[in-house]
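FORM 7B: Structural annotation worksheet

SECTION A. Query
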Amino acid sequence: MPDYFNLQGSVRKAPHSPSRDTTRQRIKFSDDRVCKSHLLNCCPHDVLSGTRMDLGECLKVHDLALRADYEIASKEQDFFFELDAMDHLQSFIADCDRRTEVAKKRLAETQEEISAEVAAKAERVHELNEEIGKLLAKVEQLGAEGNVEESQKVMDEVEKARAKKREAEEVYRNSMPASSFQQQKLRVCEVCSAYLGLHDNDRRLADHFGGKLHLGFIEIREKLEELKRVVAEKQEKRNQERLKRREEREREEREKLRRSRSREHRRHRSRSMSRERKRRTRSKSREKRHRHRSRSSSRSRSRSHQRSGHSSRDRSRERSRRRSSKERFRDQDLASRDRDRNSRDRSPRDRDRKDKKRSYESANGRSEDRRSSEEREAGEI
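SECTION B. Predicted structure
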């Protein structure tokens, strides 16, 4: 397939290259290979196409279907492609401004030097030429739209500007020699970097200021200013959202810290309460044990008192029993003595038997008395 060349000699692929069509079918509008300026309808390759500054085909993918997809998706989500497009247009405009400065320097070197007064008069003629050219371009646009009355009003302004231009040219002609005035004086357009002549007629001025090249640069510059404004607004919005999210995160962190402190306080309080309950429980248990011990001691005292009472009664009973036994032995002893007196006249053998019996009874009585005294001492102990 043959190659196509633009005015600057760069090679261009055919508009319907099969490889590019295949690539367009594979990618989406968010792909890096897609021209973001094309999606926003401000790519210089599209705007200046067909002019003497045609840039040729863009190195990135241009597709109207991808632009339509982007316009639909951008209603629901902000892709922030304006930043990429702004960088692209800024680079292009900066390059154009550099070319304009270079052209100005070249003109200053080739043209003869004139005084500042004459230069100011020539600048006035150039300004009137630009004004006339812009008004004539506007007249053509209004005529194409069918607005005849407004077009006639603009033509009246054109006639007034032409009269001012004739006066400015007369002043400029009178301030310079005839030979120098006939020399063509050039000027570089600040918008599109094109050369303008001091003696250009109205038709040429109208063609320049109403032409696609000049209007294309105006469109690109206006779009660049709009993109700068949009990007600044979105960046400000993003900064505010980022600041808001940061504040929300800080608020959440403070809330988490407050909740953690509250939980720690409640945990500490519960531990304190549990310790207090344990302390109270221990104190109650000690009180219970103390009361139990006091009851036990009181019971033991009462039991000991009862036992002491019982022992004293037993001792009194034992004493009474011992007294009764003593009295009985005493009576027996008296009775035996009486019997001895009565039986003095009996035989010696009987007396011996009686004496043995008496001695035996007295010995048994003493042993009984000793046993009773020992039992009494044991009871007292």
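SECTION C. Observations
Residues 3 and 13 are 6 Å apart (CA to CA). The first strand starts at residue 4 and ends at 5.

SECTION D. Sign-off
Analyst initials: ____
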